[in-house]
Each structure stands twice: as structure tokens, then as C-alpha cells.
């Protein structure tokens, strides 16, 4: 049943005029066409209308329960097929059920609504009723669109203006049928229902949109124009795009100390340990398998015969949580937002914590990434300790060194920053990260066993990517290994921004990339760290996104 335009009309006119013809489903509401699923009928000499559809077209509420429905002054018993008007029983035959549809006499409906029912030929009738007054306490849903007819792929600009009679806040909105653009020709009905702070809900407010003509955008070109950073969009061709091969550039060179094995320690102990001097990045990812509250610590011990300064330049952590998918994303968002300046001064032989997690309940986890710079050689020790034990030198001396779990990695890896440069030419194109082939994995050493280790996925490695020829493009992340939740930091001319990827949920499908940025400058710098707890590889996909004249040229910037 097409009732959408009728409800839009009832909010603007004092009367609702329904014109119908016997045995035909086509009707008119205030001159606009509408459709009934059940046609008006003559039954026992009476002109009958389908009750529920007619009430909807007239914008009249039809409350009811336990076999009773109420339309204005008319009460209908749906089990007995009987009716009463202001308490007065109506003649038999006023109500009928035909093919499972409840019909009521058109004359009785007119009397119930204080409406006028007229006909010239006995087949086509006009029912003119006052607009329903409604409940004076409920909020009112309202919205408009910038047009009533759109081309396929044209952006629909919605302007909302609901209100509450007493000025209460509108706390919730529920849309049905709303799309930012419609790509197939046809007629679409859009409705809005709002709820106020008292919990009262409005009647639906509805408008109808017509889509026809020459397409303006495809789903892909539309997304490249209008998707927000962090939004996903469909691109079934994404895996067929050629690779843009970056070149390696000179840049910072310092080690990554990575602690992820045993990932789920079952007793207090040393997870990893190594010594360093100068700059380093630390990354730890662990779940508490002790069966009781515990904490993760990173302890620094001065190995010099003089005082040593340990400065934290950046720190991101997620703890405690049982949801592994958010561990890496929150850590990265915190890491990119953090500032340096925290300093520990250690005397010769002195030990202090450079990181201490919140208390982790059994089964919950922690992910921490930290950039340190030291003025001399220090020993760094990753510990998991039950909450009752303090990380003192005496306790640490008695702790066992925990064996790797055989599934995950720990070690010290040179090259915590990978500086890459790429010049864009033919588009679209992809840059592959974390596949172990095009982008090789780091190799390092487990300092506790002396074994060579390989860091699949390069978790903890900062990719310093400089893209030239970026102006007028759009760049997106395509997850190729499954669930991915992370963040990237972009520098576009004077703008520096950290982007949450995706904005909501998880990026899962390779053919549904997530928009990262639309560069305005010719040179775009991207800082990317593979997110702990997510799957690699990923691709960064570059599209040509400059607005063109003709096809795809219309750009609507206003979106209230």
C-alpha cells in the first residue's frame, strides 16, 4: 500500500480527501495517487472500504487490543464482525471480513469521522474528513528533502525539524526507507518517527521520493564524493587494481621490543627482557591467564655507573578489556593522540616501572605501545604479576622466565620505522602492507633464547608513508585478512588528523574498503601501525576522486 504521500499531505491541509472507485485499487488522496491492496467493494448493498488501509490513507490512528479496534467514534469487534458508534450498535452487515481483510461501511466511516461522503455516479466516491487532531502531548516528527524527484545516484539532502509541544528534548529518531542516494529508478517512501525525553513517540511523518532519469553517480563514485573518513563502501573490483610499488627511503632506525609470547601467561613471570640504549618502541599484547587478578609491568633498570634518564615520547594502551578486537584500535588512537615529556631518572642499578597496566581480571587483556628514549643503557623487563605481588627487585629475582607458547612471537627487531615513498600515476592503485612478500616481515632475535624470530604482520612497525601526486584522490583501507580495527594518522598540508578505521564495527570484506582521506595537497603523509588483535594484510587503495563535469559532476555540499 502506498500511503506515504497521504501522510505528508495530512500535515499540511485541514481536510483529507480520499477518492475511490468500487472494485479498483487505485485511489487519490488530495489529488495524489495512492494504492490500496484491497479494493472497495459492495457487500449486501453497502459500499465497503478496507478499514486499516483507509485509516492509514486518511492519517487516522487505529488503536486496538483483544479483538477491538477504534477509529474516532467507531468501535469494531473484529471477532464478531460488529460495530458501535458512540456506544450505539450498528446494523448487521456494517462490518465484514472478506479474504482475511476487515471491511467497514463507507457511510459508517464517514459518520465516525464527521466526514462527508459524496458520489456522482454511484461508483466513484469522495470521502472528505478533517485532519486528525492527534494526541496533544506527543512530539511531532517533521523533515523535508531538497527535491521530490532525483536522478539515480543523486544525493538526497534531508532537513529535520521535529518538535515537542512542551519543548521537551527529542531524544531518539527512527527512520524507515531513508537512503542518502537511490541508485535504481522507482518511487520510495521515507518515514521518520521521533521520541521525546518523556518516552512519548510521535506518529510517523512520511514523504515520497521519485527517482528517474540519467544517473549522476554509481555507488562507488558517490562514495568517493560523499563518504566520511571511516565509512565503508562497496567496490567489487578492488582486488584487481595494480600495485603501486613504494621505494624505501632513509629514515629513523631503532629497535622494536615485542612481547606476545606466551600471549596468555598462566603464572607470574618474565615475559620478555632485553637491554638497549637510545630510542626504542615497546609493544606488548597479553591476556591474563592466571585465574586471578594480575597486572602487566614494563620495568627499566639502569645498567650504567651513572644516572640515566628514561623519557616516554608516546604511549597508547588498552586495558582492561575482554574484547580482543578493540585492543589494538584504542591503543593506536591513544598512541597518536599522546604527547611526550614523561621522564624517569634512574640512579645506577635502580629499577622503576615505565609502564604499569590497570588490574586485569582473569581472562581480560592489555595492549600497550610506547616509544622510549634513554640517555644510557637500560634493561627492560616485561612482567605479568598477580596483583598481590609488587614489582620489586627482590620479587623480580625470584620470578621464572616464561617459555614461548609456540604460536606467537617475542623478540627484538631492528627497524621499528619503515619509511616508504610512492609516486601515484595511473589510478586506481593499491599499496600492500603486511603480506610478508611485497611487504617483507621484520626478522629479529629472541634475547632470552638467542633464536632468530620473524614478525609476521609487522605489528608495532610504524610505516612512514609519503605519497606524491595525491591531490584530487581518495584513499581507502581494504582489509584482506578478515577483521580489522585500527587507526591512521594523516598529514595533508597544514592538517594533521587521526582517523578511526572503521568509524563503527569492524572492517571485514576486501571488496568493502573504508575511506581514509581525500587529500587536498599533492603530498600526503600517512603514519600507519598494523593494529594488534586485527588481521593482515591490508591494502591502501588510491582512487581518482576529483569532481568532473558531466557524469558524476553534481556535488551537493549542504547536509544539515
From TrEMBL:
Stretches assigned to the Copper amine oxidase-like N-terminal domain: 29-122
InterPro entries found in the cross-reference section: Cu_amine_oxidase-like_N, Ig-like_fold, Mao_N_sf, PKD_dom_sf
N-terminal signal peptide: none
Protein's recorded name: Copper amine oxidase
Amino acid at each position: 500500500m502506498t500511503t506515504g504521500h497521504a501522510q505528508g499531505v495530512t500535515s499540511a491541509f485541514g481536510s483529507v480527501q480520499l477518492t475511490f472507485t468500487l472494485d479498483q485499487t487505485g485511489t487519490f488522496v488530495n489529488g495524489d495517487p495512492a494504492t490500496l491492496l484491497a479494493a472497495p467493494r459492495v457487500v449486501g448493498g453497502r459500499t465497503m472500504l478496507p478499514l486499516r488501509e483507509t485509516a492509514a490513507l486518511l492519517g487516522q490512528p487505529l488503536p486496538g487490543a483483544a479483538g477491538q479496534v477504534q477509529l474516532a467514534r467507531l468501535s469494531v469487534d473484529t471477532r464478531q464482525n460488529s460495530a458501535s458508534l458512540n456506544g450505539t450498535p450498528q446494523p448487521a452487515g456494517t462490518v465484514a471480513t472478506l479474504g482475511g481483510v476487515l471491511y467497514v461501511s463507507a457511510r459508517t466511516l464517514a459518520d465516525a469521522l464527521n466526514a462527508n461522503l459524496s458520489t456522482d455516479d454511484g461508483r466513484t466516491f469522495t470521502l472528505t474528513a478533517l485532519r486528525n487532531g492527534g494526541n496533544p502531548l506527543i512530539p511531532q516528527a517533521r523533515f523535508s528533502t531538497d527535491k521530490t524527484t532525483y536522478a539515480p545516484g543523486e544525493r538526497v539532502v534531508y532537513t529535520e525539524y521535529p518538535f515537542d509541544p512542551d519543548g521537551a528534548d527529542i531524544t531518539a529518531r527512527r527512520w524507515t526507507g531513508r537512503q542518502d542516494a537511490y541508485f535504481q529508478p522507482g518511487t520510495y517512501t521515507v518515514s521518520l518517527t521521533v521520541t521525546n525525553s518523556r518516552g512519548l513517540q510521535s506518529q510517523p511523518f512520511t514523504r515520497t521520493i521519485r527517482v528517474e532519469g540519467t544517473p549522476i553517480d554509481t555507488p562507488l563514485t558517490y562514495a568517493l564524493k560523499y563518504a566520511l573518513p571511516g565509512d565503508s563502501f562497496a567496490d567489487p573490483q578492488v582486488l584487481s587494481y595494480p600495485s603501486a610499488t613504494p621505494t624505501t627511503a632513509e629514515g629513523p632506525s631503532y629497535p622494536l621490543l615485542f612481547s606476545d609470547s606466551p600471549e596468555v601467561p598462566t603464572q607470574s613471570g618474565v615475559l620478555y627482557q632485553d637491554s638497549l640504549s637510545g630510542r626504542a618502541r615497546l609493544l606488548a599484547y597479553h591476556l591474563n591467564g592466571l585465574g586471578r587478578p594480575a597486572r602487566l609491568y614494563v620495568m627499566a633498570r639502569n645498567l650504567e655507573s651513572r644516572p640515566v634518564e628514561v623519557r616516554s615520547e608516546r604511549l597508547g594502551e588498552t586495558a582492561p578489556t575482554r574484547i580482543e578486537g578493540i585492543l589494538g584500535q584504542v591503543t593506536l588512537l591513544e598512541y597518536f593522540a599522546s604527547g611526550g615529556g614523561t621522564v624517569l631518572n634512574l640512579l645506577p642499578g635502580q629499577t622503576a616501572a615505565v609502564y604499569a597496566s590497570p588490574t586485569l581480571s582473569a581472562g581480560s587483556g592489555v595492549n600497550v605501545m610506547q616509544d622510549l628514549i634513554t640517555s644510557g643503557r637500560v634493561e627492560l623487563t616485561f612482567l605479568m604479576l598477580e596483583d598481590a605481588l609488587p614489582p620489586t627487585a627482590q620479587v623480580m629475582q625470584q620470578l621464572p622466565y616464561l617459555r614461548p607458547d609456540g604460536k606467537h612471537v617475542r623478540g627484538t627487531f631492528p627497524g621499528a620505522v619503515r619509511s616508504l615513498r610512492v609516486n601515484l600515476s595511473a589510478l586506481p592503485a593499491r599499496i600492500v602492507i603486511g603480506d610478508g612478500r611485497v611487504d617483507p616481515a621484520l626478522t629479529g632475535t629472541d634475547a632470552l633464547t638467542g633464536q632468530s624470530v620473524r614478525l609476521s604482520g609487522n605489528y608495532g612497525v610504524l610505516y612512514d608513508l609519503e605519497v606524491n601526486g595525491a591531490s584530487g584522490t581518495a584513499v581507502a583501507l581494504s582489509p584482506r585478512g578478515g577483521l580489522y580495527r585500527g587507526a591512521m594518522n594523516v598529514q595533508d598540508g597544514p592538517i594533521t588528523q587521526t582517523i578511526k578505521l572503521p568509524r563503527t564495527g569492524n572492517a571485514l570484506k576486501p571488496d568493502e574498503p573504508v575511506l581514509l582521506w581525500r587529500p587536498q595537497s599533492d603530498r600526503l603523509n600517512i603514519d600507519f601501525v598494523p593494529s594488534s588483535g586485527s588481521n593482515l594484510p591490508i591494502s591502501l587503495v588510491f582512487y581518482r576522486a576529483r569532481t568532473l563535469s558531466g557524469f558524476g559532476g553534481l556535488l551537493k555540499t549542504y547536509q544539515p
